[in-house]
Structures are given as structure tokens and as C-alpha cells.
Amino acid sequence: MSWIVLVFSGVLEAVWATALGRTEGFSRVAPTVVFLVAIVASMLGLAYAMRSLPVGTAYAVWVGIGAALTAGYAMWSGDEPVSAVRIFLLLGIIGCVIGLKLTH
């Protein structure tokens, strides 16, 4: 169960990071609310997962999922450039997350 919660929390990290970029300094209400809800839920999930997973593993997986999804979404939406190298490197992060799960 901890791994499922951790993966979901990583997804929420991507949500709050993307929402934070759209708050315009917390001057836009809707993205600010999304940011606040997602960051609280993401942190609660990470804290729950850390009760039974090693801190380093849980944090690395959480950050890896969040970073890969945030960057992937930014490329998909056109906010960041797309290149084969960037995609390859993001797949490397995902591979490392899978590797951490397999070695746990």
C-alpha cells in the first residue's frame, strides 16, 4: 500500500509544481487553490509512505516521479522544448524509480 500511495503522491507533486508555475506569484486564485490542495495531499502521502519505506528511497521515488511528470507535461503542453535527448533522460529517471522499487 505504501508504494501505491507514494506513486500517487509523486503524481500530486507534478500537479502542485505545475500549478505553482501558473499562480503568477499566488495572484491567480484557481491555480493557487490547486497548488495548496495538491501540496498538502502530496506531503501527507509522502509522510505515510515513509512510515514503512526508507526515507531516501521514498524521497527519491517521490521526486523522480514528480520531476519526470512535470517536465513531460511541460513538453507535451509546449511550455518546454521537446528533444530526443530530453525524453531519453526523463526515461532514465523513470527507469531509476522502477529500479528502486525492484530493489526494495
Automatic annotation (TrEMBL):
Gene3D superfamilies tied to this protein: 1.10.3730.20
Q: Which terms are listed as keywords in the entry? A: Cell membrane, Membrane, Transmembrane, Transmembrane helix, Transport
Where does it live in the cell?
A: Cell membrane
Mainly resides where? membrane
- Give the membrane topology: Multi-pass membrane protein
- TM stretches of this protein: 33-50, 57-76, 82-100
The entry's protein name is: Quaternary ammonium compound-resistance protein SugE
Lineage: superkingdom: Bacteria
Question: Gene Ontology terms, cellular component aspect?
Answer: plasma membrane
| Molecular function GO labels | transmembrane transporter activity
Q: Which residues form the signal peptide?
A: none
Q: Which InterPro entries match?
A: EmrE-like, Small_drug/metabolite_transptr, Small_multidrug_res
Annotated family: Belongs to the drug/metabolite transporter (DMT) superfamily. Small multidrug resistance (SMR) (TC 2.A.7.1) family.
List the Pfam families hit by this protein, alphabetically.
Answer: Multi_Drug_Res
What is the native source organism of this protein? Geodermatophilus telluris
